[in-house]
Each structure stands twice: as C-alpha cells, then as structure tokens.
C-alpha cells in the first residue's frame, strides 16, 4: 500500500527544468528520505504535492486519491522554512493551524511540550531563535496526530542536541506506524533516520528504494567491510593487522588505521585477534561502504553536477 | 465561510497596525466631516455676502451625500490595511502554510475577498451613522433623501478594497504593492482630469457631449458617483461642463469590480505561491 505516488512530475521555470519526469511511490509506514544537493528540486517536489506550486506536467496522489485540501488537513507538513505570523505567540500561531486543519486544537499544549517550547508559548514568534522557530514548525506538524508527516530539512538550524531529539522523534513517530517523508541534503541524516530513500539531482530522479538497496547495494565492492581501528602503538597494530586472515589492505588515516576486509570478518574477530597479539585497541568502528562514495557514484562527481 | 472568517479574526486581533488603523479611521471619518461642517457653518455666518450662496451640506437633504463624499478622501486607509494584511502573508509565507495546513486556494482567496467586502461594509456603516449624527446636529428634520449616495460610497469602498486585493495578489511585496497602489491612484486621477478637460474642449468646440470620459477609468468610475452636493457655485459651472452620465459610471464601476474579482481569483488559483 503506497501513501504517495508520484507519476512523471515535471516543473519548468522558463528554460530551467527544476523537476524532470520524476516518478516514485512512498510505501506506507516508512521513513522516506528525499536526498539531494542544494537546489536539486527537493523543495519544488514537496511544494507541488502540497499544492503551493503548480506542476508543468505529471500527477500525484495521496493514498490513491486525488489530492484535495481535505487530504492535506490530515498531513503534517514543514516546508522549507517555519512560516508563522511574527506578531503572534506560539499558542495563537498553532491555534490558526489547528483551526485550518479542523482538528488538534486540544493538542496545542501537548505538542509544545514535545518540542520543549511550552515555557515560551506566550512569547511572540519574532522573538524566537532559528532553532525555536524550527521546533515550533515541527510542533505544528504534530497537531491532530496525522498519519503522514512531511519534513523539509527538519534539523535545519538546530543545535546538536536538538538534531538528535528531532531524529529520535522521527523514528518514534515511525514506530507508531506513521509514514514520514523527509527531504534532506545530509547523507548521514538519511542513513540514520530513513528506511527508504530517493536520490534526486538537478531535478532528475537518480534512483530510489530501501536505504539498504540504494546505499549498500550487493556487489563486489559492497561485500567488503571497512573498519576504522586505532591503538596506542599504531606501527605494531599495522604489522599484526597485515598478517590477519581476511584483511585485504591497511591504510593509515591520521592517528588511526583503515582496514578493508572480507564481509566474513567481524569486529569481534578483529578485537580478539589484536588482543591475542598483545595490542589493546582504543578504537574499533565498522563502516559499511562509505556513504559519500556511494552518493558520488550515483550523482556523479562535482564536475558533472 | 464563518470558520474561515474566525481564523482571519485570530490574525487580526493581535495585529497592532489593525487596531491603530481602525481607531485612526473611525476618528478620521468623524473629524473630517466635523471640519467640513464647521468651516461651512463659519463661512455662512461670518463672511459678508456668503449668505447669497447659502448652502448647508449637513442638512438632511445633503448629509448622506456630503458625508459619503468627504469620507472618500480617507477611504484609502482601510484598503491600505487590507493590503498590509494580505502582503504580510506573502512576506511571512503564511499563505503557503495556510494552504499546506489544509485551506484550498479557493478558500484562501475567497476569505480575503470577503474581508474586502466586510471592510467596505463596516466603513459604510460608519459613514451612515456619521451622516445621521451630523444631520441631527444641523437641526433639520430626518429624511432619507439622497441616501443612495451611501450605497455609492459602499461601491467605492469595495472598489478600493478590491484594487488592494488585486495589487496584493499581483505584486506580493508590501512596500512595492502599497507604492504602486499610491502611484496608480495618483496617475489615474491625473489622466482622468486630463481626459475631462478634453471633454470640456470637445463640448465647447462642436457641442458633442461625451460625458466625463475620465470618470470611466477603473478607480474613478466609483469615485465619480460621489461628488459634493449641488450648491450655487457648482450650479454656475454646470452650463459649460459635460453631462455626468451616472448610469455609465455606475455600470462601469460594477464591471470593474467583476474584473478585479475574477482577475485576483484567477491569479491566485493558477500561480505558484
């Protein structure tokens, strides 16, 4: 069952193709990331499915129904920037959103508490910091407990603690059975939060599918495991690792070593092996295929962007 | 629509500019008419010979027309407020958010047009009571003679407000939109005056009476329905002036309203927001 299906959507601004024949479907109860560099068309895409931009061609539907404002009332959306009335406080701003949705008026206190803005509920929006504005926008999307949430760069402007909180919130919402569609230009964020991803570049859909399939496809390269490893005596560590079965290469990276080995090699084995050889590790981190590398493979290098 | 208007009210009630403008306009209407009322009274009483052209604009036979006409000079205030409210939505992108949250585009533009209507209605009610007050203050007997001018005032107020809505939708940016609004109003007046002078010339030279063509322009059509009441001085000049074709101005005013309405609606429904 798909929540959103997009069919050959295009959007032209004069000669510029902001979106070119984009099609994909968002399965129910997933966290669906739309990943792409700045200016790749992510916000344009979300703008079209929210009816604030008009597509040049193509169509989309929500839950198999044609999109209407009634459908939008049941979706919580944060698009591009937090949009609120500057002269009004958080409560009144949320009241307007709730009235428009026709639901969630009783949720105002609850959602303000979720994003830690309850204490500042009476302050004017114009007095808020960027992070607070962003959190208020997220609070607004939660009004009426919608089953579908759309977030455009949800962690924009937040401090590290705020970023972690919002990511946790997104995962938690997903565990409650909600579908989340999220645009981001941060690879790491998509990998940490999303179950599915669509990669878009210059308005063209490059690929989409589950995060596992897209970012870690099976193949020769992907069957290798990359491990970051460090110990007090780097030289000795290098020597013993070069002798370990399954290890294909050892390269130095600042104070640590990067080893590429067979999929069969586990962190546990490496740890045990080093310990037995008399080296105590102070860092051991398994990296799957580098996200950056995979992303560049899909989108091409800088020069053809 | 009631629910939508209630939402607009939440936006309005905390907006300090709204409160200021509302008070300023209400006080302005009374004050402006009071000035006209007092000045006229003093001239009639104190200037020798003025009695010959004796004329009381706030007697009940004139008060509806005089008040409607005089108030027209500050009618730009409610339309400016309307424009601020609308273009602020664009500035803060709240128009987008309203639609994202579940208003249809049609609902959004409809409620703005409804606001234009309500502002016009409230201004008209204010004019009605002001006219009534000054009518009684003049010590004359109550009469509805010429009350049609209050209806014309409503038409004029609605025209101004709809121009404000149209300019907001077309221009979006607060400063630019209000600037263009002022310049356009001024420019149209100048062009209108020039055209009217041309009409006088044509009438004098070959007797063809086209009426005041300048009054047929979009904002002047409803303006021209309201003039200061007939008075001895005005009557003297009538012989050389072209005829006022009220019915043409009236029909055109209605026609322009429909254009403003359809154009702003069409634009908002079709554009990228």
Summarize the structure in words.
The complex is a heterodimer of chains A (305) and B (273). With 305 residues, chain A is of the alpha/beta class. Chain A is 33% helix and 31% strand. Chain A folds into two domains: 2-215, P-loop containing nucleotide triphosphate hydrolases (Rossmann fold); 221-288, Alpha-Beta Plaits, CATH 3.30.70. Chain A has helices at residues 42-49, 69-73, 90-101, 108-114, 130-142, 160-175, 187-193, 211-215, 234-242, 267-276, 291-299; strands at residues 2-13, 16-27, 31-35, 57-62, 65-66, 75-78, 148-152, 179-184, 196-201, 204-210, 224-231, 247-253, 256-262, 281-287. By secondary structure, chain B is mainly alpha-helical. The longest helix of chain B has 33 residues, at 105-137. In chain B, 37% of the residues are buried.
Number of helices of chain A: 11
* Mean of all residue-level pLDDT scores of chain B: 88
Q: What's the pLDDT, averaged over the residues of chain A?
A: 87
Radius of gyration of CA atoms of chain B, rounded to a whole number: 21 Å
Structural class of chain A: alpha/beta
CATH architecture of the largest domain in chain A: 3-Layer(aba) Sandwich
Strand order of the largest sheet of chain A: 6-7-8-3-9-10
Distance between the termini of chain A: 34 Å
Query: What fraction, in percent, of the residue positions of chain B are helical?
Result: over 70%
Q: Give the number of DSSP strands of chain B.
A: 0
């Amino acid at each position: 069952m798909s929540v959103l299906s997009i069919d050959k959507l295009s959007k032209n601004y004069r000669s510029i193709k902001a979106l070119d024949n984009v099609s994909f479907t968002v399965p129910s109860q997933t966290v669906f990331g739309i990943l792409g560099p700045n200016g790749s068309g992510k916000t344009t895409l979300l703008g079209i499915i929210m009816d604030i931009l008009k597509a040049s061609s193509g169509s989309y539907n929500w839950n198999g129904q044609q999109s209407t404002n009634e459908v939008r009332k049941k979706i919580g959306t944060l698009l591009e920037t937090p949009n609120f009335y500057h002269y009004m406080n958080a409560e009144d701003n949320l009241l307007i959103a709730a009235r428009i949705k026709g639901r969630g008026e009783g949720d105002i206190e609850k959602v303000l508490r979720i994003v830690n803005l309850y204490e500042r509920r009476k302050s004017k929006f114009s007095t808020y910091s960027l992070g607070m504005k962003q959190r208020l926008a997220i609070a607004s999307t939660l009004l009426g407990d919608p089953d579908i949430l759309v977030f455009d760069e949800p962690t924009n402007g937040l401090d590290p603690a705020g970023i972690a909180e919002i990511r946790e919130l997104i995962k938690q919402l997903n565990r409650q059975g909600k579908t989340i569609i999220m645009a981001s230009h941060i690879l790491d964020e998509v990998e940490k939060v999303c179950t599915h991803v669509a990669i878009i570049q210059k308005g063209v859909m490059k690929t989409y599918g589950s995060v596992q399939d897209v970012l870690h496809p099976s193949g020769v390269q992907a069957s290798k495991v990359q491990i970051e490893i460090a110990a007090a005596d780097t030289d000795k560590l290098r020597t013993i690792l070069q002798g370990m079965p399954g290890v294909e290469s050892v390269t130095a990276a600042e104070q640590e070593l990067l080893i590429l080995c067979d999929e069969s090699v586990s962190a546990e084995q490496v740890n045990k092996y080093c310990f037995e050889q008399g080296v105590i590790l102070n860092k051991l981190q398994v990296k799957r295929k580098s996200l950056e590398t995979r992303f560049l493979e899909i989108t091409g290098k800088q020069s053809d962007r | 629509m009631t629910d939508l208007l209630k939402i607009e009210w939440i936006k309005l009630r905390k907006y300090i500019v709204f409160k200021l403008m509302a008070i300023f306009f209400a006080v302005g209407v009374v004050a402006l008419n009071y000035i006209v009322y007092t000045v006229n009274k003093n001239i009639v009483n104190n200037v020798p010979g003025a009695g010959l052209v004796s004329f009381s604009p706030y007697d009940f036979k004139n008060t509806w027309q005089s008040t409607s006409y005089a108030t027209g000079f500050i009618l730009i205030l409610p339309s400016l407020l309307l424009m601020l409210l609308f273009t602020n939505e664009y500035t803060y992108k709240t128009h987008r958010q309203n639609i994202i949250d579940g208003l249809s585009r049609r609902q959004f533009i409809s409620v703005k047009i409804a606001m234009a209507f309500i502002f016009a209605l409230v201004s008209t009610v204010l004019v009605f009571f002001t006219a009534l007050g000054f009518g009684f203050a003049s010590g004359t007997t109550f009469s509805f003679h010429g009350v049609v001018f209050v209806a014309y005032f409503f038409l004029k107020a609605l025209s101004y407000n709809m121009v404000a809505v149209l300019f907001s939708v077309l221009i979006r940016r607060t400063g630019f939109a209000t600037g263009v609004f002022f310049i356009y109003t001024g420019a149209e007046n100048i062009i209108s005056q020039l055209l009217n002078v041309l009409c006088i010339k044509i009438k004098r030279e070959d007797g063809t009476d086209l009426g005041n063509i300048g009054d047929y322009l979009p904002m002047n059509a409803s303006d021209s329905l309201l003039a200061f009441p007939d008075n001895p001085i005005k009557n003297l000049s009538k012989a050389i002036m072209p005829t006022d074709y009220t019915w043409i101005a009236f029909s055109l005013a209605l026609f322009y309203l429909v254009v403003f309405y359809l154009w702003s609606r069409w634009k908002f429904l079709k554009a990228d927001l």
